[in-house]
Amino acid sequence: MAEVTVRVGGRSYALACKPGGEGRIAALASAVDEETQRLTATLGPMAEGQLLLAAALNLADRLQRAEAGLEEAAASVEALAALLEAAAGEA
Hints:
It contains 2 helices and 2 strands; from the N terminus they run ββαα. It is an alpha+beta fold. The protein has one domain. Strands 1-2 form a two-stranded antiparallel ribbon. α1 crosses α2 (48-90). The protein is elongated and about 65 Å long.
């Protein structure tokens, strides 16, 4: 196992990861840290656990919204493909 140290919410954390995964873990931790900074700037200081939970909930919300958007886009593409197929059959 490889190890990477990341900084989130002003604290350092040593994390184990697969060899070669250090960069990805560091990038993900950076995104979490950015979210904690946004929350702290908006809501003010809070306990570490609350800060990390709030950041996780905000990021999970964004992920769910993005996934829903992808599902809507896929449905639109399928509908368009069906229309194109029907139009080609009429030609």
